[in-house]
């Protein structure tokens, strides 16, 4: 297994002037062999995606290869013209992307888009192409290949779309497959299936795979070789087991330590407090709109009973469409429910008007997923934080003073108060978001996927901060996440949701050690790198 | 197919829309002071109040508004748009005689604006930041900022008066007695300037929209995917980006169908084009309410029809649209 397919030799990719560093990737050496999966892992901004795109000459405008060589099939790809490269793309090197919805042309059928690869590189006639497309779709285990071929991207699920992308990339049996975070946008159970599929096809065809990822769990599942990239420089590389189990470089060690454990940390057992927030039989469905639309309402919440106790963190875990975010929004009355009751501190807030609800609003505060979109870009940080208290009648000067204290509480320098959101990193913004929520002195924090958009090392810090603050201030927290690992780390109790209903509810330990519902078990089985994850000793932290 | 069932619903919805316009027009027009009788009486010179009243009775203008309304609706549903006393002819006859030239003018200006706007927009986007892009941008800006009537007058001054290439006004040279092919050429020669005057503004607008839309598509993931397949740049543009980028232009064009009819009033006046626009202007000045209502009704039907066509095109181009 040592036929070299592609070699990156001292590859350097220059960034345009004014970027935060001169080179996106500097002096990268990497050898990809047939039948092997090489994972290029790094955090956002590490240059991993640009390195992958450079191979196919698909760098964005003004980003160029400034040094080194890419040897493939006896040619240096960096010296080829776009025309020469086009002959290799799709034929001998295939590529799949992170977001299969946007990576497919919304106006062309799946069959046409896969057939296009055959039309470009082969002399096949239309009938032969159609037959081959259906065979390819069957190879990636899509049901009813002929129907899928006629479908448009929006008619397929995320997993099906990614399968179609894989069929497209492998249409001509390329020697090299470049996969740029192909499972990041997918649900965990779908992710597990796609990883298995890539693994299977790659073994079958002896394809070399360059797999870009930020998730060590995925690395553990699929990699033969691993290369760790930080700020454009490779800090460590080697066989998977060596890098995962005996990392040499401090950065690799730090990254590995930050991966959330698939285990329940030891926590002091506390007596359950009184119920703060409760949902009784909450139902919500989204009807198809319009005069002529018939039936087919989507049931987002199907009679959900759940209680949040004082001082506890309750996790809502599920895949996209499970109703977890809808439930969080319903319990904060950001969303009206069709029937059922929402009870805060023993008072029903289900029917309150917007105005009557206002005094209750400050008792429940939200932390959002996207720290980039949830802060007003033209507001100074001090105003972001102080705005809420001022609306609720605080003296502006005092509120601004308190904003600085809150910044200190979330681990930022009080001088940050005078700056604007764009001057902060994602993790810092999420801290600002937490400070904003705390400014109203809420009783309940609702965190909707607060760490999903963050790099793993930052993720760990924000989770620690949340746990710390919750304990310090005696808050209750509703924590929405798709990631069981994260839920186990921070939640006291976990509610697993599927199709708008809670299928299992229990303490983190009970859910982890003895899951009862088949869906919970499936979720655990799908966690990337599950077996590896459990093998790492907790002492690594 | 479900997509076309959706179109069927839109078609059904068009009926109440047209009816609503009919009702609205009838009452709106009565908000303006004066009626046909007072104008006719005034023009006859020696009008006594009795004579005016007589005219009113003759035209049925003395009856209660509500009665007039039901009569109007009942007639309209039978495609009887009433009688223009001013012109001494049925309204539908008057409109039909003028509909052809106006449709010709509008459709020519509209389709040329969309076609060339799209083309120029693509050219500008492909050659982004080059001299070609700059030339197109400046030209569109000028077209965009020039008032239609002024543009029309300048076209006449340059091409008719100074260069004597094109006729100044009218639909055709009746005196020459052209027939068949020659008549077509003659009408086309008369059309050049009105179509240009009416269409240039929209052409400039669609060029800008198309350019922005193409540039937006350039950064899309599916374009990178197409490149990763080994597709050539030319084919990526024609096969993938063009249709995606054209959708916003089409939507905008549909919205503006109404403006086009409004614009044709000015153009028809400047070029003496025997269309609905000039007819409407005259009807308005002589308080010929029946005729005016008829024109409103036909224009509304035209706008609704163009919107339906645009809708059908959008459904044909975009598989995501469905009920």
UniProtKB/TrEMBL annotation, chain A:
Subcellular localization: Cell inner membrane
GO cellular component, one term: plasma membrane
Membrane topology: Peripheral membrane protein
InterPro entries documented for this protein: AAA+_ATPase, ABC_Ni/Peptide_Import, ABC_transporter-like_ATP-bd, ABC_transporter-like_CS, Oligopep_ABC_C, P-loop_NTPase
SUPFAM superfamilies xrefs: P-loop containing nucleoside triphosphate hydrolases
Pfam families: ABC_tran, oligo_HPY
Principal localisation: membrane
Gene3D superfamilies named in the record: P-loop containing nucleotide triphosphate hydrolases
Protein name: ABC transporter ATP-binding protein
Organism listed in the record: Plastoroseomonas arctica
Lineage: Bacteria, Pseudomonadati, Pseudomonadota, Alphaproteobacteria, Acetobacterales
Automatic annotation (TrEMBL), chain B:
GO cellular component, one term: plasma membrane
Cross-referenced SUPFAM superfamilies: MetI-like
Membrane topology value: Multi-pass membrane protein
InterPro entries the record matches: BPD_transp_1_N, MetI-like, MetI-like_sf
GO biological process assignments: transmembrane transport
Alphabetical keyword list: Cell membrane, Membrane, Transmembrane, Transmembrane helix, Transport
Pfam families: BPD_transp_1, BPD_transp_1_N
Transmembrane segments: 12-32, 103-127, 134-167, 187-205, 245-271, 291-317
Cellular compartments annotated: Cell membrane
Limits of the ABC transmembrane type-1 domain: 99-314
Similarity annotation: Belongs to the binding-protein-dependent transport system permease family.
Protein's name according to its UniProt entry: ABC transporter permease
Native source organism of the sequence: Plastoroseomonas arctica
């Amino acid at each position: 297994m040592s036929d070299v397919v592609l070699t990156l030799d001292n590859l350097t990719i220059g960034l345009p002037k004014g970027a935060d560093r001169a080179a996106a990737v500097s002096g990268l050496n990497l050898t990809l062999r047939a039948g092997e999966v090489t994972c290029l892992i790094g955090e956002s901004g590490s240059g991993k995606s640009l390195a992958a795109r450079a191979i196919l000459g698909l760098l964005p405008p003004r980003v160029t290869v400034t040094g080194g060589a890419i040897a493939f099939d006896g040619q240096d790809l960096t010296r080829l013209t776009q025309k020469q490269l086009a002959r290799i793309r799709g034929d001998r090197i295939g590529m799949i992307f992170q977001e299969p919805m946007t990576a497919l042309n919304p106006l062309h059928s799946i069959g046409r888009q896969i057939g296009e690869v055959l039309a470009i590189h082969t002399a096949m006639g239309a009938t032969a192409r159609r037959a081959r497309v259906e065979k390819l779709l069957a190879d990636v285990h899509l049901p009813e290949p002929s129907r899928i071929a006629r479908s448009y991207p929006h008619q397929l699920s995320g997993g099906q779309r990614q399968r179609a992308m894989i069929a497209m990339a492998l249409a001509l049996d390329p020697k090299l497959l470049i996969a740029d975070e192909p499972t990041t946008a997918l649900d965990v159970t779908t992710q597990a299936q796609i990883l298995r599929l890539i693994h299977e096809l790659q073994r079958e065809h002896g394809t070399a795979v360059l797999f870009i990822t930020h998730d060590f769990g995925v690395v553990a599942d699929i990699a033969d070789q691993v290369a760790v990239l930080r700020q454009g420089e490779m800090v460590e590389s080697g066989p998977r087991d060596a890098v995962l189990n005996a990392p040499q470089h401090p950065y690799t060690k730090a990254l590995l330590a930050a991966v959330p454990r698939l285990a329940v940390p030891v926590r002091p057992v506390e007596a359950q407090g009184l119920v703060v927030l409760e949902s009784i039989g909450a139902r919500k469905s989204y009807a198809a709109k319009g005069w002529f639309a018939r039936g087919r309402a989507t049931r987002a919440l199907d009679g959900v009973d759940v209680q949040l106790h004082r001082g506890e963190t309750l996790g809502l875990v599920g895949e996209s469409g499970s109703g977890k975010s809808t439930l969080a929004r319903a319990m904060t009355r950001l969303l009206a429910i069709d029937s059922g009751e929402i009870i805060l501190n023993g008072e029903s807030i289900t029917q309150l008007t917007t105005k009557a609800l206002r005094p209750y609003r400050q008792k429940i505060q939200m932390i959002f997923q996207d720290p980039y979109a949830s802060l007003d870009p033209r507001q100074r940080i001090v105003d972001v934080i102080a705005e809420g208290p001022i609306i609720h009648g605080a003296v502006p000067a005092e509120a601004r003073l308190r904003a600085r204290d809150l910044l200190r509480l979330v681990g930022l320098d009080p001088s940050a108060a005078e700056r604007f959101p764009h001057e902060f990193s994602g993790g810092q913004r999420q801290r600002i978001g937490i400070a904003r929520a705390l400014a109203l002195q809420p009783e309940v924090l609702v965190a909707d996927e607060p760490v999903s958009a963050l790099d793993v090392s930052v993720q760990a810090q924000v989770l620690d901060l949340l746990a710390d603050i919750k304990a310090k201030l005696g808050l209750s927290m509703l924590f929405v996440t798709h990631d069981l690992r994260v839920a186990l780390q921070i939640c006291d109790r976990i509610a697993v949701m599927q199709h708008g209903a809670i299928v299992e509810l229990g303490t983190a330990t009970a859910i982890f050690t003895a899951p009862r519902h088949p869906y919970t078990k499936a979720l655990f089985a799908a966690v990337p790198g599950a077996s590896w994850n459990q093998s790492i000793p907790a002492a690594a932290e | 197919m479900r997509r076309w069932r959706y179109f069927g619903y839109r078609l059904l919805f068009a009926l109440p829309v047209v009816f609503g316009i009919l009702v609205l027009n009838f009452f709106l027009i009565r908000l303006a002071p004066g009626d046909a009788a007072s104008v006719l009486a005034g023009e006859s010179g020696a009008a006594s109040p009795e004579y005016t009243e007589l005219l009113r009775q003759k035209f049925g203008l003395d009856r209660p508004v509500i009665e007039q309304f039901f009569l109007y609706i009942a007639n309209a549903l039978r495609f009887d748009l009433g009688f223009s006393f001013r012109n001494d002819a049925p309204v539908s006859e008057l409109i039909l005689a003028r509909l052809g030239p106006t449709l010709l003018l509008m459709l020519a200006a509209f389709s040329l604006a969309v076609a060339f706007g799209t083309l120029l927009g693509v050219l500008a986007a492909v050659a982004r930041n080059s001299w070609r892009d700059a030339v197109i941008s400046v030209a569109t800006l000028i077209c965009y900022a020039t008032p239609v009537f002024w543009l029309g007058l300048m076209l006449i001054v340059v091409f008719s008066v100074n260069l004597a290439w094109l006729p100044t006004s009218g639909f055709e040279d009746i005196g020459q007695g052209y027939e068949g092919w020659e008549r077509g050429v003659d009408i086309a020669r008369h059309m050049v300037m009105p179509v240009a005057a009416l269409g240039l503004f929209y052409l400039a607008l669609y060029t800008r929209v198309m350019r922005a839309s193409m540039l937006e598509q350039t950064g899309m993931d599916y374009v990178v995917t197409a490149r990763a397949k080994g597709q050539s740049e030319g084919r990526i543009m024609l096969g993938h980006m063009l249709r995606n980028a054209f959708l916003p232009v089409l939507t905008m064009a549909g919205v503006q169908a109404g403006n086009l009819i409004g614009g044709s009033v000015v153009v028809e006046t400047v070029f003496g084009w025997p269309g609905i626009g000039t007819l409407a202007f005259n009807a308005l000045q002589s308080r010929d309410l029946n005729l005016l209502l008829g024109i409103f009704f036909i224009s509304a039907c035209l706008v609704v029809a163009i919107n339906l066509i645009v809708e059908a095109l959008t459904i044909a181009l975009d598989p995501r649209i469905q009920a």
